[in-house]
Structures are given as structure tokens and as C-alpha cells.
Amino acid sequence: MPFTDAQIDRYARHLILKEIGGAGQQKLLATRVLVVGAGGLGAPVLLYLAAAGVGTLGIVDFDTVDLSNLQRQIIHDTDNVGLSKTESAAKALARVNPDVKVVLHNEKLDAGNARALISQYDIVADGTDSFATRFIVNEACVLEKKPLVSAAVGQFDGQLATWRGFEKDKPCYQCFMPEAPPPGMVPTCEQAGVLGALTGVMGSLQALEVIKEVLYLGETMAGRLLIYDALSTAFRTVRVPPDPECAVCGRMG
Ligand SMILES: [Zn+2]
Q1: Residue 80 in contact with residue 65, Cβ under 8 Å?
Q2: Other Cβ atoms closer than 10 A to 81
Q3: For the chain, which domains are there?
Q4: Residues labelled as active-site residues
Q5: How remote is the CA of residue 174 from the centroid of ligand 1, in Å?
Q6: CA 149 to centroid of chain Cα atoms
Q7: Fewer Cβ within 10 Å of end Cβ, the chain: N or C?
Q8: Residue 91, number of CB atoms within 10 A of its CB
Q9: What is the 152 CA–ligand 1 centroid distance (Å)?
Q10: 236 alpha carbon to ligand 1 midpoint, in Å?
Q11: pLDDT digits (tens, 9 = 90+) for 7-34
Q12: What are the helix (H) ranges across the chain?
């Protein structure tokens, strides 16, 4: 489909990049991304992907906006406290870019609905703070052969990786984390606190990696884990090999 004059203006800074250009922008407009969790990480992921002109954004969240969310969840605002996070996020995205179709999944992602939800999308961005949900999303992404760009934050540190466990030489999340740590080992943001801007850094990196995966730009994060230490302002990357014994992806390929 040819661009409208407004789209040529809106995406001018992408169109001028030879690595994106008209073909890349059309690809973004035709892409469907599922974002799991409209929280601290999901907020910048959704805002940047909407601004970039990703054509369809699905949002899975069953929570409502709480005043204590606003310290970091920049897609929500004071007027929307009490509203469902999906609706609050959809209102913000409509203000950012009317080109984007937003699909609300106002439900908890679980083992029963994960594959049906994920199968409707090209790629998944996960920013939940629940190990149980991360395992379910990972397994569904492997089975549906969808790339998964995942981020997580502690109080002052963050992690980011892309999982393509459906490919023989690439790990899935469970290759890296065979089982959830014992309950209470890794406190949630609610229990331990989190520096708000940290979720902005990690969520922005996640949005960028989604765009890279969609456009096959640069070097994928699949098979690597990025670790950010905010207090020392240091990034490092470690290799994550696939586990041939992995319970999720070990038998595939
Ligand atoms: Zn695996």
C-alpha cells in the first residue's frame, strides 16, 4: 500500500535510513506484536512500537492502573487511575499514532490461552514480573515458532534477551532458566522497589530489539543475554547456549 502524505512525514526519519526505508516501514506497518504486561517495561515498549508504526499491537494485562504504578509506567497517567491498564494504554497509543491498531486482551495469560493468543501475532515482547507467566509465554512461543524479546528488572539492574528456541542452534528462556527460583528468592518490584527510569531503559532496549527482529537488522540478541548494572552504569553481554536437554525446546529441530 502506498504511503499517505501524513505517513511520509510521520516516518521521515525511518524512511531516510537505508536499513529501514520504504520497504522496512511497510514491514513494520504490517507487523503484529503482542506485548505481555502494560507495566514498567510494557509502557516504553508499547509507546516506541506505536511511534515506530508497528501496525498492530496486542496488549495482555488484567490489572487496573494504580497510583503506585505512575512512578515508572509512563504510558498511564493520573487521570486513568482505576481504569484497566489495557484501556489506559490504548488511549495513550491512539494519541501517539492513529495508524496503529490496538487489540486489548483484558485477561490473564495462562497455559490455557497462551498459544491461541500468541498464534495471532508475529513476535512477542514479555515484560511481566512473574516466573510462572514467563515460562508459559516461552513455551507457547517455542511451539508457535514466534521470537520472544524478554526483559526483566531488579532494583537497580536489568536483563534483556531474545529467545528463538524454535531454531536448532538458539536457546529458549528455559534453556537459560530450567526452573523458577524458589518462592521468595527473587522479590517482585512491589516487595523490593525499583528505580523507575530503569524500566524505561530496559523497555526501550526491548522495543529496539523487537524492531531489529522484525526487520532482520544488525545482530540478533538470540543466544545472548544483556545485563545492565544501573548503579555502575555498566552493560555486559554473556553467551547463552541452547540446552539439548531443555524440557521445552530440547526435542525440537
Ligand atoms: Zn530451551
Answers
A1: yes
A2: 15
A3: 17-239 (3.40.50.720)
A4: 189
A5: 5
A6: 5
A7: N
A8: 16
A9: 18
A10: 22
A11: 999 999 999 999 999 999 999 999 999 9
A12: 5-10, 12-15, 21-29, 42-51, 85-96, 114-118, 131-144, 173-176, 189-192, 196-215
